[in-house]
Amino acid sequence: MTTLNSLNQQFGIAGHLQFIEVDGGLTFAEISNAHATASIALQGAHIATFQPKGEEPIIWLSKLAKFIPGKSIRGGVPVCWPWFGPHATDSKLPGHGYARTVMWEVQETKALADGSTFIRFGLIENETTKAQWPHASTVQLEATVGKALKVELITKNTGSAAFQLGEALHTYFHISDVGNMTIRGLEGCEYIDKVGETARRTQQGGIVIESEVDRVYVNTTADCIIEDKGLKRAIRIAKTGSKSAVVWNPWTEKADKMGDFGPQGHRGMVCVESGNAFDNVITVQAGETHRLVAVYSSEKL
Above 90 in pLDDT, residue 2? Predict the structure, then answer.
């Protein structure tokens, strides 16, 4: 196990990045530079916070989020990998895969010329992960923290046979109130509605949320824009290597049952996820590398 001291000696950057341990036992990379602050847990390579200087946070983290080894964190950018949703053949395996609850290792950090900070993580394989995912592969997460937050999920097939991959960056965005925002960019898209009986529908106009929403939009590479009248800003989600977009808000009853949202906590967040799921599960050929890239930025409304 790498110690905090050795992490800071090898990968800490004065004026940019240091590693800390939080109550609960998780280790975080704490980034602060001229442009923004961010915190990333080594468990799950889980980006917990991102806030440009002088602005409201872009990424939402629950006030009741728990930082406990082996448990997923409520908020931030959970990594769904190497499948999205329930496992195709074994319902006992963890939903959305195991990547968000296992340890990743820091592989590289650097201060960039424009004042941004770069960090790369690699997932650490163990006997449990190999049993769940018996394919020769590596997965890395790269984060660049600047005026925008760039996240890259990089899967390499290191074996001799192709495999199918489902994935998503399950990102929670900070908003003034769910009743004050509209999501643009998915107009006219087909989506799989997972609330109630699963059905396929077509999006009419912008997305307004007034009850539980759990939708997988398929065959879309468009930017998504969260227009937030309360904060007078728009959050732009630009992506490459992704043909699915997931929009999720659990609403009151489900959020209350989860226990880590807090009273009315669901009103201050919306998930807009970039990924490849359902119709868009991808095949990674032997020797190939697949990159899912998302860039989160804000602009004034």
Answer: no
Rounded CA separation 109/42 (Å): 13
DSSP character at residue 94? P
Q: What dihedral angle (degrees, nearest 10) is formed by the CA atoms of 176, 238, 189, 276?
A: -110
What's phi and psi for 105, nearest 5 deg?
-110, 145
Pairing label, strands 117-123, 36-41: unpaired
Closest CA to 165 of 79, 105, 232: 79
Q: Can you tell me the distance from the alpha carbon of 265 to that of 292, in angstroms, rounded to the nearest whole number?
A: 29
- Work out how many domains the chain is built from and give that number: 1
Question: What is the per-residue pLDDT across 4-41, written as a single tens digit (0 to 9) for each?
Answer: 999 999 999 999 999 999 988 999 999 999 999 999 99
- pLDDT above 70: residue 143: yes
Which residues are identified as catalytic?
Answer: 170, 273
Coil, helix or strand at residue 286:
coil
Domain encompassing residue 215:
4-300
Give the per-residue SS3 of 2-67. Answer: CCHHHHHHHHCECCCEEEEECCCCCEEEEEECCCEEEEEECECCEEEEEEECCCCCCECECCCCCC
Q: Contact 80/88 with Cβ under 8 angstroms?
A: no
The CATH number given to whatever domain includes residue 201 is 2.70.98.10
Residues 269 and 179 sit within 8 Å (Cβ to Cβ) = no
Give the pLDDT confidence of 53-103 residue by residue, as tens digits. Answer: 999 999 999 999 999 999 999 999 999 999 999 998 998 999 999 999 999
Task: Please give the Cα distance from 115 to 134 (Å, whole number).
Answer: 40
Q: What is the pTM of this model?
A: 0.97
